[in-house]
Amino acid sequence: MKCLFMSLFISVVVANAQNVTVLLDGKPVGTRGALNLESGNGVLETCRDEGAANNRITCEHSYNSAVMATHDSVHNNENYCFSSNGTTQYTCKLPSKAIRAYQAGMTFVLVADATCLTACTLNIDSLGSVSIKKSDGITNPGGALSAREPQWVFYDGRVFRLMGGEAHRPLEEGDREQDARARRFIASMEIMPYGNIVTVETTAGDVHKTTTSNSIGNATIRAATGGLAGQHMWLIIANDQLGAKTITFGEHLKTTGTLTGAPGKTATLQFISDGTVWYEVARSTNL
Length: 287
Hints:
The protein is mainly β and 287 residues long. It folds into three domains: 37-68, no CATH class; 71-162, no CATH class; 189-284, Jelly Rolls. The chain has three helices and 21 strands. The chain has helices at residues 2-17, 51-54, 71-74; strands at 20-24, 27-32, 43-49, 57-63, 80-83, 89-92, 107-112, 121-124, 130-133, 151-155, 160-162, 189-191, 197-200, 207-211, 219-223, 232-238, 246-249, 253-254, 259-260, 266-273, 278-284. It has a seven-stranded mixed sheet with strand order 5-7-10-11-9-8-6, with no helix packed on it. Strands 12-14-16-20-21-18 form a six-stranded mixed sheet, with no helix packed on it. Strands 13-15-17-19 form a four-stranded mixed sheet, with no helix packed on it. The N and C termini lie far apart (117 Å).
């Protein structure tokens, strides 16, 4: 009888020793013989038995990308809204996953294929059409939203507001809102490394300078982009002291012809863009 009692006591101790006490934020949840992990909304759990030799079960956390957006997806094209229905009742589907409801503070990059000359609306992920207004939240765009030009729009809880893009508003007589006045304006200058091909980074400033190298010889200068319509640009080309270099002009640059330098002399060229190509409007040599 004594042996039977001892056997039962040992069994109870062993059983109790297998219980697990679970704490959450330092507070006890309970003590039981098993711990059950369940996948939550967007969080996934997977466990595997690593066998008697390792004497452990390993559990890993993962996530459901259809519910939880990753950092890369948010910063990739999560808020890109492209409307291609040919009307000013713009519609789009977000590329990563649909939003469930409009929330105040949401921002989107809207690209439409039709210019909003008066009033227009936006319907994202079939949540319903919402009016688009200028930044004041009251005035219709009236030409401020142009086809194929990206615009940031902000949902204020009632309407979508344009976060810029009013440059296309027609000017009225005496209207100087779009004119800039200042005592002086200093353009940024890009120093371009000289090589057989010299590329003008047209977004790096309005003035670009390069100095020829005798070891390289002649070169071709090209522009990285056609620029923005109405944008001005200046090139400064300094010829080295050892020999005259011949400069030809390539992609996106329409000039009056090849530039032939002179040792120790500098040439300047001025361009204006029509949004597709840069046109030379002035040239000075042997400076």
